[in-house]
Amino acid sequence: MIFILIFILKGIEAFVSTISTILIIDEKRLIGSLLSFIQVMIWFLIIRIALDDSNSIFMALSYAGGYSIGSYFASFITTYFSKKKLLVIIITSNKNVLRDMKINGYSASFMKASGLYGSNNIIIYSFINNKRKDELIGIIKNEDKKAFISINQNKELINGYFKHSNDT
Questions:
Q1: Based on the domain organization, do 25 and 96 belong to the same domain?
Q2: Could you tell me if residue 163 is inside a domain?
Q3: What is the rounded CA–CA span in Å between residue 33 and residue 126?
Q4: Which of 60, 81, 102 marks a domain boundary?
Q5: Do residues 65 and 93 share a domain?
Q6: Are residues 59 and 20 part of one domain?
Q7: What is the DSSP string of the chain?
Q8: Same domain (yes/no): 48, 107
Q9: Same domain, 75 and 97
Q10: Given CA atoms 80, 84, 89, 95 in this order, what sign does their dihedral have?
């Protein structure tokens, strides 16, 4: 029974720790710091319990398993609630990518480009909500399986055009 308790507590502690770190990185310092306090209190409780029965390999397995599960679920939650804008850079020779992006409510800027291995390319720049990343990749790959795609996270955006109908 103690192993299940350690597994659950460590899962909660790892979840809170991951969320706290992300909030602090996102400059939500007060909430992140409060969660850090809770995380340390849970960690202290876990250590107190674990040290009473520290001779068991199952204690270590419960601790490690809880940490893995907590971090895993936190990564899904933070991705789902993230309001970050991503810069997606696409290099393709297929102009239908632009058409499909527009049909699906994306905004973009583009320019003709030449490279060492091709002279009939376009470079597309699009800022998107993190939640739409997989959808956009699917649209691009549907038209050009060999398109080069680079995705970067932005700290701050000022001005510009963003179609928001599908970004909520």
A1: no
A2: no
A3: 34
A4: 81
A5: no
A6: yes
A7: -HHHHHHHHHHHHHHHHHHHHHHHHTT-HHHHHHHHHHHHHHHHHHHHHHHHTTT-HHHHHHHHHHHHHHHHHHHHHHHHH---EEEEEEEES-THHHHHHHHTT---EEEEEEETTEEEEEEEEEEEEGGGHHHHHHHHHHH-TT-EEEEEE-S---S-----TT--
A8: no
A9: no
A10: positive
Residue 35: how many CB atoms within 10 A of its CB? Answer: 21
Query: Of 44-53, 77-86, 97-106, 110-119, where does the model show the most confidence?
Result: 97-106
> In which band, very low, low, confident or very high, does the pLDDT at 168 lie, cut at 50, 70 and 90?
very low
> How many domains is the chain partitioned into structurally?
2
Q: Which of 46, 81, 116 is the last residue of a domain?
A: 81
Which tokens hold the place of 135?
Answer: 């959808």
Both tokens of 134, joined, read 């997989």
3 closest CA partner among 70, 65, 73, 71: 65
The domain in which residue 141 lies consists of 85-153
pLDDT digits (tens, 9 = 90+) for 6-54: 899 999 999 998 888 888 877 788 988 999 999 999 999 888 887 776 6
